[in-house]
Amino acid sequence: MFSQLYDLKAMLPGELDQLVGELDEPAYRTRQILNWLYAKGVRDVREMTNISKILREKLAERTRITCLHLVKRQESATGEAVKFLFELPSGQRIESVLIVDGTRRTACLSSQVGCPLDCKFCATGRMGMIANLEAGQIVDQLLQVNQFARERDERVTNVVMMGMGEPLLNYPAVVRALKLMRLKEGIGLGGRKVTVSTAGYIPGIRRLMAEDLNVGLAISLNATTDEMREQLMPINRKYRIADLLAVAREFFACRGYGVTFEYVLMAGLTDADADAQRLAELTRDIPCKINLIPYNETTDLRFRRPARQRLAQFYQVLRGCGVEFTVRHSRGRDIDAACGQLYHQQKK
Predict the structure, then answer these.
(1) Residue 279's closest CA among 328, 221, 231?
(2) With DSSP H G I counted as helix, E B as strand and the rest as coil, what are the percentages for the chain, rounded to 5?
(3) Where are the domains of the chain?
């Protein structure tokens, strides 16, 4: 028995080709293995019945297939979100969400158990940093969410790395998972159907823009002054608003398309007319999209969703400044599946 088993769900086709070659098997075995993993969803190599028993035994000695344990699934009363609670082999737990929006089916995936960045308004931040996920564990979230969608005669059309964790602080696993999501032999998400969301970890942004990956980038801005952003997001002590604006310009120059700035509206903190005016001014010369997110309330009473009239006034001021924006309508708030609400108390 080999001391370390390769995770088939984390292997790129070239790596599978190499393994198949080491086992003295023809190259077409790679396509067969990928088909079993992605089209048929096998959990054990012994289920791959169109390859020889000898090869299955060899694979069983050298490989494993990551399969997260589905602990619980909750469906929103509105039908607009489904939350999945998965358990890792370590016993730690993570959450993923399927978001329904017209014909779009978006899988919101986690990259870490907890998060080290301690954003004050985010439920996941209260968990602290517990563990990085492996690439296969990220991919398996997508496969299981997609399998649920397929049972409803649907399929996942988009992925957002906006679940638990800061994706760019688990860079190797996340980038490997992104490449696997885009395989034509797998789920085959094309174009910019995949978006990575970051709290503003600039070294990771620069690494990502250099990758041969046509993925979208969303930067959580969430304040228009460094003083407020530092209170809400401690990462701002190192990477200031001016730094984020500069790297957004770099991203456009490198990739040819702009970032999305996400802005959470919190009552009395980030929702003033002056904030709307500053947001317009900060982003005026940057090719970007602006996505406004009225705060989704958690048990933390320090933060509140602005009143409807205040939201309307904020939107009006932005429009008056000539800013185009979208408003993210919360889906899954009744099951704590909306943006900023993912949290799970880990077992002792």
Answers:
(1) 221
(2) 40, 20, 40
(3) 6-64, 91-335
Q: Is 105 helix (H, G, I), strand (E, B) or coil?
A: strand
Cα 188 to Cα 193: distance, rounded to the nearest angstrom: 10
pLDDT digit string (tens) for the chain, length 348 residues: 344 799 999 999 999 999 999 999 999 999 999 999 999 999 999 999 999 999 999 999 999 999 999 999 999 888 899 999 999 999 999 999 999 999 999 999 999 999 999 999 988 888 899 999 999 999 999 999 999 999 999 999 999 999 999 999 999 999 999 999 999 888 899 868 999 999 999 999 999 999 999 999 999 999 999 999 999 999 999 999 999 999 999 999 999 999 999 999 999 999 999 999 999 999 999 999 999 999 988 777 789 999 999 999 999 999 999 999 999 877 666 666 545 455 555 554
**pTM for this entry:** 0.94
Report the CATH number of the 6-64 domain. 1.10.150.530
- Give domain 91-335's CATH number out of 3.20.20.70, 3.90.180.10, 3.30.930.10, 3.40.50.620: 3.20.20.70
Annotated catalytic sites, by residue? 95, 339
